[in-house]
Amino acid sequence: MINFNTIKIYCSGCSSLLYEYHKAGSGLLVKCYKDRIKEDYTRGDLRCPKCGSEFARERMIHGKPAHKIIQGKVYVKT
Ligand SMILES: [Zn+2]
Fold it and tell me: What would the pLDDT profile of 21-33 be if each residue is shown by its tens digit?
């Protein structure tokens, strides 16, 4: 049984809220699976809607579409 925590992901440049996300486990956030993004506050283009900073790249991870986080571009609050 996997425990999911709802976390909030913010732009490290301007502190805009980007995603609310259901994260498995407590490790460093390296990716967001698309089907676990609970609320998406971006325009879906992997950029901060406020400052335009690119914070993730589209990747297939374990066969599922995901957003690979660019380290240093976001921070997380639980
Ligand atoms: Zn920003």
Answer: 999 988 889 999 9
Question: Hey, what are 71's tokens?
Answer: 């380290």
Counting the structural domains of the chain, the total is 1
DSSP codes of every residue in 8-29: EEEETTT--EEEEEEEESSS--
23 C-alpha vs ligand 1 centroid, how far in Å? Answer: 21
Q: How far is the CA of 4 from the centre of ligand 1 (A)?
A: 26
Q: Which domain holds residue 47?
A: 4-77
- pTM beyond 0.90: the answer is yes
Two tokens at 60? 């297939």
| Mean of pLDDT over the chain | 95
User: Residue 52: pLDDT band by 50, 70, 90 thresholds?
Assistant: very high
Query: What's the CA gap between 59 and 49, in Å, rounded?
Result: 21
